Every structure is written in structure tokens, then in C-alpha cells.
Amino acid sequence: MKLYQAAAALFASAVAVSAFTAPSKMPISRNMGTRTFVPKFGTSLAMSDSAVVDAETVEEGAETFEFQAEVGRVMDIIINSLYSNRDVFLRELVSNAADACDKKRFLSLTDGDTAALANPEIKIKSDKDAMTVTIEDTGVGMTKSELQNNLGRIAQSGTKKFMEALGEGKADVNLIGQFGVGFYSAYLVADKVEVVTKSMQADSPQYKWTSDASSSYTISEDNSDPIEGSGTRLILHLKDDALEYMESAKLEELLQHYSEFVEFPISVWKEKTEYKQVPDEEANKDLPEGEEPKMKTVPETSEDYELMNTNKPIWLRTPNEVTEEEYKDFYQSAFRATYDEPLAHTHFSLEGQIECKSILYIPGMLPFELSKDMFDEDAKNIRLYVKRVFINDKFDDIVPRWLKFVRGVVDSQDLPLNVSREILQKSKVLSIINKRLVRKSLDMIKDIESDEDESKYIMFWNNFGKYLKVGVIEDRRNKDDIVPLLRFFTSSSGEEYASLDQYIENMKENQKQIFYVTADGKEKAQMSPAAEKVRSRGYEVLYLTEPIDEIMIENVPDYKEFKLVDVSKEGLSFDDEDKEERKKKEEELNVDHKAVKDFLEGALAGKVQKVQITDLLSDSPAALVQSAYGMSPTMQRYMKAQNVAAGGSDDGMMGSFNQAVLEVNPTHPIVLDLERMVRSQGEESDEAKDFAVLLYDVAALTSGYEIEDSGDFAKRILSMMTIKSKSDIRDVEVEAQNVEQEHVEDNHENV
């Protein structure tokens, strides 16, 4: 970030937290990473003539001031429209308090006032009787004029500009802190706010600012509980529908969610119950002398402040300062993953025009929320922070969705948030951060792949392989980096996975194609007659066993110099044979077996596009293959399910476009039997027709298709079994008659 940009951003932030910070006539610097920026305040916070009207005394010691003319309208927008979740009021007010402490620390160092550096802290306490929540810090505090300047107007840019930007929808309204409205988020839960403050300037009295979000506010000197040193006490008088925020458990939950990494200690006043061992007077009444008294456990309740933010933001440290154990502990704590050890992590920062610090993790197991829906919208993978303050974890564009499984934190002051700090706007800054997060994630995956322990990548692939496949489909920019990381079962790999590079290493000499088949699982891929055509010639076949695989592989037409070929499509050819000779041989086969070919095309009219006689099949009698642009059976089922889910019909979807081609093995005994039936019984034979349809059904099943009419299929099976049984009975009867005749003849000869 350029120096003047950083100064401007810091200045806007300082004004945004004006409820707790005081301007100074001296330069104010803020340590940001390794740089120090020095924005000058000077008179930039001086109140304009129109900011307030003349004060009138309403009671002794108190003065009433009018807000700027547009402040009422702006506060109404803030309270009713700007924030989508009113829980964020605590985030905003604690952030202001932390900035006030930070500013006091710097001013104390500049002035050499080491006493003022002692123990900066933020305390939060609820009072159920008074229906209030008090947020107190030991920060820089404010004078009377600073209360008027900072709380009587909406930020340094002016309310008119704020209203104009909101009305016109200008992009610059999305700059975080530009309008300094964070303090006014208090009115999301409170109908009255009191600000008791004491400036760190010498001899400054303690003041109280009070407003109920109407058109005016009052300022008076305060003689209540004195603030030691300097600081600000913010008292929220809660609305009737916001009483849940008086519960210490609710405050603790919000602090753990939004502010667990704030630099300064944050404590909440809460009730504690401890159990102590005390003598049991009743049981010890008749205790003999010398025996040890009997004890009982009693609860003891006390109230005290308890520290909330014990976790440390390790992403702000340099990587060489953080141990592996600290990385693991941070992951398990920040992402509530006690029983998960991350497979890998990366810790990096961006410097220059854009500043960003980040830690990313690859989980050791699939996060629970992704086990039901791999793109669950409620999954919280990347947590966005600005100056240690949690902003959101549901930004869709911070990483592409194929990296939904990657967890981590990103801390940057350059992110383009809207004024409520809840919505991330698309911009060049976001694009740059997105690219870096993707690159670092890919580097982590590659490190796991190259690890000596091969089981790590197998674990990664089993958990997150589907996400990489989605990346191939959706992320064209990084597709070439993702494809080598893919893993498949193959016809030669057994129970092990193989990469495309390993497939290439095992190729036959002069092989120029990578063969694959799609199926519903490894077992069905092994049964596929289409894969059989390739395996019988000694080629390895990739098994694509998930519905997403077919969509994914369409985006990978080739790898390196090798073309990927679907063996379940017609027109399959091999590099080691002449295409003209192959064509001529198939033509001869179709002529030689024209009778059975024509018969099958007639018997299967409407079921297949055509019948092709081939010598590529070795063990199977027939196979169903698709035309060049047809969909595989797996994809057909997927499309059918999508159509039904959308309220459509599954009848005749895609029409005849997806009718398959029946390839027939003329040397198989079943096909030879069919040929004999056609010659002996004629083409009108019902037995031959049932035999032909049964041949088609078997080819469909082994090729991954579903039987359209299971009832008819069962009838054909039973019919064939009946015919076989009758034939066997006739054979037995004939054999019995022959035996009996032989017995009679033997008896006759003996006589």
C-alpha cells in the first residue's frame, strides 16, 4: 500500500472509532507489519459551523446539542437497514475500544509516559436489574469538544456525502470505515446510549455524552464512578427485544466469534461456580475422637471478570517464529476441529500495493458440514479478518468453490467491504488475493502428492478428489495444474490409484492414445465389454467411476501429446493397425454375417441405432457402444434424474439420439446359436426373436445400461429356462427308452 493510501485508511479508521479515540495535534503513527505510517490529524476533525447549534442549558451542568440535520435520517438507515445481523454491534464497539487502547499506547510511547502503558484492557459487564450492558476500555478517552466533533456527526466525510453515496449506489460507499458509523451500531440493541469518558490529556475532567438516537444529545461533567487514568465507558440501555445480550453466555459467544484475536485483553463479568470440600457437620456429630472428619462437596458461587481472548493470531507472526505444534493447535482451536490433524498448511503474506496475511490448511478429514453437501453454503472455510477483528466467513468469491474444503484465515485492510463490514465487494484487490490463495492451495496439494508417505495423498484423494474434478470443470485458469493431480483406478493398477503420468509411463511402445471407460463403480468397469476390446490387445484402461468424471473428462481432450479416447464410443481404432485394413475387415465381417446382422436390426428396431459385426470383442457375445456424440449410460441416468427432479418426465428423454450401437462378436457360441436358429426356424421365429432381445439385454447390463422393462426380461429368462428344461426332459426320456430297449433286447437274446 502506498504511504498516503495507508495514512488515509488509518485516518478513516480512527474517525470510525470516534466513540473512544481522541484526535491529536501531533502526528499519529500505527505499526502495521514492518512499516510505520504517520497520518496527521491537525484540524481535520475540527467541528464545522453547521455541525452543532448553540448549546442551551437544560439542567445544571448539562448542555443539549442538536445533531447535524441529516444525522437523524442516517441513524435511521444504520439502525434499520445497514446491518443485516445486529449481533455485530459488539464487534464494532469492541473494535473501537481496541483502537482506543492502541492509540493510547502509541501516544504514551511518543510522550515518554510509560505509566500510561500499563495493562490496556477492555471489560464488559451486564446489569440485569438496570437492563444495561457496559463496555469499558482504558484507551485514549475524549474531551468535551471531541465528544461534540466525534459523536455529533457521522464521520469526517460529512452526512450529506454519506446520504448521496447511499442513494446513488456509488462504489466508493463500500470502503470500510469511510463514514465512521461503527459507533452507531449500538442503537441496534439499545434505545439509549451513555458515553462516560476521560481524556488522557492532562487535567481533563470526566464527561458524559447521552442520546436516545433522537435529534439531540447532551454533554455534562460526570461525577459517577471515576475512570482511572483515561478511557471510555459505554453504557447501553437495551431495548425490550434485546435482553438476550445481558446474558454473559451470549456475550461470550459473540466475543469468541468476532473478537477472539483482538490484541488487548477482553474480559466479561460472569458468575462462576466452584465446588469445594468442607467438613460435613451433620455426619461428624457423633464422630469418635481422633478419627478424620467426613467431608462433603458444596458449590460456591462468585462473580468476577473472565478473560475471553486467549488465542493468539499466529498469522501476524513470521513463519519461522511459529512451531508446527502451534500451527496444529491454532487449527484445532480456530476451526473447532479437536480430533483432526491437518495434512498441510501454508503461512504467507502479500506486501506492496496490497497487504495481506494468511494461513491456509488442508484438513486431515472431510469436514462434517461437507459430508452431506460438498458445497454446503453454511460451511465456514475461510475466515476473513480486518486488523484481527472477524468480519465474515461466508464470502463466496474469496476462493473458488472447488477449494471449499480448504480452511484458513485472511487478514487484510485492503479488502473492499461495505460500510457495515458484512459484504465483500468484487474488485481488483479481491481478484489478486483470490489468485494467491488458489496458488498457495495448489502448492500445498502438490507437497502432499510428493510426500514420501504415499498414504497421505491417498487420504487426501479419498476425501477431496471430487473437488479437484470440479476444479477441472470450472477453473480454466488452473486446469493444467489440477489435471496431473487426478487419480484413477485402471485395468492394471489393482487396488491402487494411478495418475495420468503413471499411465503414460506404462504405455505400450508407439501408443498415442489414453483409453478410458465410464461406469458406476470399479467392478462394473471391469465387466464392461467395451473395456474388454482394449484390454485384450494389451492396453491399459482408465476407469472413470463417478457421474462427475464424464463431465470432467470432456474438459481434458488431451494430456501432454496424448489424446484421451472413450472406448465405449463406436469407431474405436488402435495405433498399431492400419485404419484402411480395419475398415475393410469389418466390411467383410458384416457381409459374411449379413443374415444375423439384418435379423438383429429387425428384432431390435427402436432399441438400437444399428448392429455392427466386429472382431474386437474376445469373451463377450455383444456390447452396446454410443455414437461419437452420445451420452454414456451413467450420464443418461444422471440427466434423467435431473429432469425428474425438475418436474419433467423421464419417458423417451433425448429420443433416438442416445440409441446405442450393438456390436456383435461373430465367433461367440451364443451368436453362432442365434445364426443357426435364424437359418433353421426363419426370421419370424418367436424363439429366435426372444433370443435376440435377450442378447441385447445382456449386452445392455454388462455395458452399464438399465433394463427398461424388467418384467419382460424375467419372462424371457424363464422362457429360455423352460425351453432348456423341456429339451433336457426329452433327452432323458429318449435315453430312458433306449436303455429299456437295450434291456429288452438283452433278455430276448438270453431266452
List keywords for this structure.
21 helices, disordered N terminus, ten-stranded mixed β-sheet, alpha+beta, 751 residues, 25 strands, five-stranded mixed β-sheet, elongated
What is this structure's SSE topology?
Layout (H helix, E strand, L loop, with lengths): L2 H14 L13 E3 L2 E3 L18 E4 L2 E5 L4 H12 L5 H24 L10 E6 L4 E6 L6 H8 L7 H10 L21 E9 L7 E6 L4 E6 L9 E8 L9 H11 L7 E14 L15 E13 L16 H11 L9 E7 L5 E7 L5 H5 L9 E5 L2 E4 L14 E5 L16 H22 L4 H21 L4 H4 L6 E2 L9 H6 L7 E6 L3 H6 L1 H7 L5 E4 L2 H8 L3 E2 L2 E5 L12 H14 L1 H10 L4 E6 L8 E4 L7 H13 L14 E5 L4 H13 L4 H17 L7 H41 L1
Parallel strand pairs: 5-11, 15-17, 19-20, 19-22, 23-25
Antiparallel strand pairs: 1-2, 3-4, 4-9, 5-6, 6-10, 7-8, 7-10, 8-9, 11-12, 13-14, 14-17, 15-16, 18-20, 21-22, 24-25
Helix pairs in contact: 10-15, 19-20, 20-21
